[in-house]
Design a protein that fits this description.
The protein is built from four helices and five strands, in the order βαβαββαβα. It has 112 residues and is an alpha/beta fold. It has a single domain, classed as Oxidized Rhodanese, domain 1 (3-Layer(aba) Sandwich), CATH 3.40.250.10. It has a five-stranded parallel β-sheet with strand order 1-5-4-2-3. Strand 2, helix 2 and strand 3 form a beta-alpha-beta unit. The longest helix has 12 residues.
């Protein structure tokens, strides 16, 4: 019997993998944090779709390339990735460690 707290896993990629994919321009990055978090610093090119808005904005998610979902630390992005996978968007992955890991790696952040 499955535990009430069972959460199916979602695919994850590292910030190094994300950097390579961004360099190749072959990934769409969705940031599921809130606007105030997003403007304070984000992965270059990331598109803001707060987690609470994702269900009604699902049609904005491209299906012709991989999707990298990012948040602050990786928790909300796992939830969002599972949501996308459940909706048939098969090439979605959560960014392990989130924007915090990206910043700690010394990579640039866009602000504003």
């Amino acid at each position: 019997m499955r535990s009430l707290f069972f959460r199916p896993s979602a695919p994850e990629i590292s910030v190094d993998d994300l950097a390579v994919a961004l360099g190749d321009r072959r990934v769409h990055v969705i940031d599921v944090r809130e606007r105030s978090e997003f403007v304070s610093g984000r992965v270059p090119g990331a598109v803001l779709v707060p987690l609470r808005e994702l269900p009604r904005r699902i049609d904005e998610v491209p299906t012709d390339r991989p999707i990298a979902v990012i948040c602050a630390s990786g928790n909300r992005s796992l939830t969002a990735t599972r949501f996308l996978l459940d909706r048939g968007i098969a090439d979605a992955s959560s960014v392990a460690g989130g924007t915090s890991a990206w910043a700690r790696s010394g990579r640039p952040l866009d602000r504003g």
